[in-house]
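Q: what sequence does this backbone want?
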């Protein structure tokens, strides 16, 4: 997890293998009475995914922890925190795809969960993944103070002050002209909050000082905006096959986006500006900001 001397591709592949194995084990071994519900949970989580949010937990932990040796319990705690973030993300995708929300029949290049299992089971699968995320955090063998901090931050990030609140603003402003500040606020909640939580998880588990936390929080804010701008550009320029979901839906439904407000070219210029700000804000961390900077470019230059 914390070996900065590995190549980025090797670091990614090693952690992806661990993340996917952990997700598979947890979803296989949880005692779900309904086999249909369990299959829906497994389908939604294990049908691919970049695992960016989980990887950010690891990258943030490295930046905040530095060269300090870690024991098994700390490593296990970071693993579970990363898995909890992925479960929350998967739950949000299930609900986003529902006919009452974004109404998308394809996710990660496959039929959405509600298409495969019906709306009712899809909703329950999302609900179950959300509660499982908190169950994992509650079971981590760390101090009660740190554990409560993790749980509180995930609740705030996933709830009405974060992801679901941002989704509500998005759904109630289809066809409306938002100001730039309103657009930033909406996406800092809808998209940025869980990304910021990933970064917080890393430095909370590293028990870092306030100076490091402040830098990483600012980095996370820029990263959340960057992630959304890239998403908006890809929705305008990508294909269904490339994205693994229906492209062009934002413009079709006249949803407020960076691409619709500024155009693709100006949005790309915004990315360059935000990238420089993100790099500069964590420059004082030195060598151990390496993984975060690599994740930054992975997010910016991704094609799906």
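A:
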């Amino acid at each position: 997890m914390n070996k900065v001397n590995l190549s980025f591709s090797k670091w990614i592949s090693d952690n992806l293998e661990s993340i996917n194995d952990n997700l598979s084990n947890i979803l296989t071994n949880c005692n779900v009475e309904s086999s249909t519900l369990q299959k829906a949970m497994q389908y939604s989580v294990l049908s691919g995914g970049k695992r960016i949010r989980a990887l950010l937990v690891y990258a943030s932990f490295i930046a905040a922890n530095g060269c300090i040796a870690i024991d098994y319990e700390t490593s296990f705690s970071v693993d579970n925190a990363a898995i909890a973030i992925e479960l929350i993300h998967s739950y949000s995708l299930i609900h986003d795809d529902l006919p009452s929300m974004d109404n998308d029949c394809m996710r990660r290049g496959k039929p959405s969960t509600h298409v495969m299992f019906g709306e009712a089971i899809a909703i329950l699968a999302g609900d179950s993944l959300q509660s499982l995320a908190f169950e994992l955090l509650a079971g981590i063998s760390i101090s009660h103070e740190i554990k409560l901090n993790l749980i509180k931050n995930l609740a705030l990030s996933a709830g009405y002050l974060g992801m679901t609140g941002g989704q509500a603003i998005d759904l109630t402003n289809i066809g409306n002209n938002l100001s730039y500040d309103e657009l930033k606020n909406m996406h800092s909640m809808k998209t940025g909050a869980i990304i910021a939580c990933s970064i917080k998880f890393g430095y909370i588990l590293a028990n870092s000082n306030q100076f490091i936390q402040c830098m990483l929080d600012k980095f996370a804010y820029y990263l959340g905006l960057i992630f959304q701008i890239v998403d908006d550009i890809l929705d305008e320029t990508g294909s269904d096959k490339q994205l693994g979901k229906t492209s062009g839906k934002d413009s079709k439904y006249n949803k407020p986006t960076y691409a619709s407000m500024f155009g693709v070219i100006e949005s790309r210029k915004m990315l360059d500006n935000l990238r420089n700000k993100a790099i500069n804000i964590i420059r004082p961390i030195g060598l151990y900001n390496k993984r975060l900077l690599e994740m930054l470019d992975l997010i910016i230059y991704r094609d799906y």
